[in-house]
Design a protein that fits this description.
Length: about 575
């Protein structure tokens, strides 16, 4: 038997009481018991009212037993004495004037293991918890997890009304085993019925049905309901979306669904800021009008000013977009966009106007696809002179995002690719611009303390020489989005005599190791590598530079505040320390 452990929490208040836990449990279990105890929490927070203390005492019997059951102890003895009296026998009507001490005595008894474990019937392919089997520690929560897994598998097999029909749990104290027998009633296979709407929304019901696109008449699957929710969320119109299944099936065996919707505020104004020691500050703002024509459509204006206080002159961007979901088909969103941009980059200046229309197409819950047609005009002044470019463009974009959190990912992957054929309307060359960005995240260690993040960026222009393409479409390397520690867009193609221009290709590699330090604070070590080439194949005939550094993150709940300090480790494009501040991880 282990020595008893004890916790005493005292207060200097006039009527404070002492709470003490005495148990033969090991240190880990004792810690869990302390954390679960309402009495110890009351002492810790200096509760003095006798009625509150006695209520906490009486709730602790059930709470502590539940804690022990979760850890596999089914023969415990618990005594909670209030100034020497057993708390279970005390009445909340006749209370002492004050409480001096509470002593909690817990003898866990032996730890049980599972004996017979049966959950039946099971749908094909059901995977029960790995530890829910004979000989494993009989954690009580595994019984619930196994039951939920069985029911969820039946629901995924179209049996929407699957429930637990019966349950038998027997603790064999002489053998120290727990036998579990759970009977599942799968119910009938179900098809989707009607999608009905409730709540406070001004979007017309016909439009809601078209956007949600519930496959009425098809076999039930909970993932299809998740997809309906995501379609409605994607519009940005609603503050709250709740899908509820009907209690009873229809006479024909179909299941109706009710979507309760609450509109978000129609207009919203937002701001953002970022700071780099060399690139300067960036200020951004947007104004958005939701549900502008009661079709769950959205009009948005964005403005951004960058390079404030930096080594280059200020850049400015003004853009507008209009999105209308379920246009032409149920799975396509009409997108109209216009953008005006003035760039003062290290090696060129450019005034750009771009106008596009196209469609976002739903491909899967985690993937997006866009195809459009547009016109792009740019007036560029660089080391090759002053030139005008006029293009018909056909932008094609796709992405897949399985990250657990877009601002602070710890698991999953992200990939996006842009392919833009451009047809010149003047003497410039025509070709195709390609850019891809892939990211992956793996966490390990206790409580996922460490996260390893990797990123690969690829850029290429084919069909046209880099000297015959608008400079703002070419590739540069350096700065917060490519190689930290190197000056912004400091690496391009050397034309000789000190002249420089962007390249036909870009290859960027980045790695980060993120480690939780304490509470909301994390530390980061990173290394970035970038290469610019004169051919369409990334990495071929390329000039390279690299940067590395350390950073801190403070998790605010909605995203970490980022501080990175970086310097060059190879290449001749820069020297000295660079500082980057922003919201969200670097990638």
């Amino acid at each position: 038997m282990k020595l008893a452990t004890a916790l005493a929490i005292c207060s200097s208040a006039a009527h404070a009481f002492e709470a003490r836990l005495e148990t033969t449990a090991d240190d880990d279990l004792a810690k869990r018991l302390r954390a679960a105890s309402a009495v110890i929490e009351a002492a810790d927070t200096e509760v003095t009212a006798p009625e509150e203390i006695i209520a906490a005492v009486q709730s602790d019997y059930r709470t502590l037993i539940g804690t022990l059951y979760r850890e596999g102890y089914y023969g415990p003895r618990i005594s909670i004495r209030v100034d020497g009296r057993e708390g279970a026998s005390m009445s909340l009507i006749s209370l002492p004037s004050q409480v001096q001490s509470v002593v909690i005595e817990v003898t866990p008894g032996p730890r049980f293991v599972f004996g017979e474990t049966t959950v039946a019937p099971l749908a094909s392919g059901t995977e029960l918890p790995e530890d829910f089997k004979r000989g494993e520690v009989a954690h009580s929560y595994l019984v619930g997890d196994a039951t939920e897994a069985a029911i969820e598998s039946w629901r995924e097999a179209s049996h929407a009304k699957a429930v637990r029909k019966d349950q038998s749990i027997i603790a064999d104290h002489p053998e120290k085993t727990l036998d579990v027998d759970v009977e599942i009633d799968p119910g009938p296979a179900v098809k989707f019925g009607k999608l009905q709407f409730a709540g406070k929304t001004t979007v017309r019901e016909g439009r809601l049905s078209r956007i949600a696109n519930l496959p009425t008449g098809s076999s039930y699957h909970p993932d299809k309901l998740d997809l309906v929710t995501k379609r409605l969320q994607k519009t940005g119109t609603f503050r709250s979306i709740t899908l509820r299944e009907a209690e009873e099936l229809n006479a024909d065996g179909t299941l109706d669904i009710t979507a309760t919707l609450i509109d978000d505020k129609p207009r919203r104004l937002g701001f953002g800021a970022e700071l780099s020691s060399l690139e300067g500050g960036t200020l951004s703002a947007y104004w958005m009008h939701r549900n502008i024509t009661d079709n769950a459509d959205r009009l948005r204006f964005d403005a951004e000013i960058s390079g404030i206080g930096g080594t280059n002159e200020i850049d400015a961007t003004l853009s507008a977009s209009y999105r209308r979901p379920a246009t032409v088909t149920r799975k396509t969103t009409l997108v109209l966009a216009a953008e005006l941009e003035h760039l003062n980059e290290p090696d060129y200046t450019s005034d750009i106007g771009e106008f596009t229309f196209g469609f976002d197409v739903e491909t899967s819950p985690n993937s997006t696809f866009y195809a459009g047609l547009g016109y792009r005009y740019s007036q560029v002044e660089d080391d090759l002179g002053s030139r005008d470019f006029s293009y018909i463009i056909l932008p094609i974009e796709g992405s897949r995002d399985t990250r657990d959190n877009s601002l602070n990912p710890t698991r999953g992957t992200y990939f996006e690719a842009d392919i833009t054929p451009f047809l010149s309307l003047n003497e410039a060359a025509s070709g195709v611009r390609i850019f891809a960005d892939g990211r992956s995240y793996i966490s390990f260690g206790g409580d996922d303390r460490f996260t390893l993040a990797g990123r690969v960026q690829l850029g290429s222009i084919s069909g046209a020489d880099y000297t015959d393409v608008s400079t703002d479409m070419l590739f540069f390397s350096g700065g917060g989005g490519t190689v930290r520690g190197q000056p912004y867009q400091s690496l391009g193609v050397d034309l000789g005599s000190g002249d420089e221009i962007g390249g036909s290709s870009f290859l960027g590699l980045s790695g980060e190791l993120r480690a939780k330090v304490k509470g909301n604070i994390s530390a980061v070590g990173f290394y970035d590598l970038g290469g610019i080439g004169t051919t369409a194949l990334p990495g071929e005939d390329a000039e390279w530079h690299a940067g590395a550094g350390l950073g801190l993150r403070y998790n605010t709940g909605f995203g970490p505040i980022r501080l990175d300090l970086a310097g060059p480790v190879s290449g001749d494009t820069g020297d000295g320390l660079q500082i980057y501040i922003g919201i969200g991880q670097a990638f």
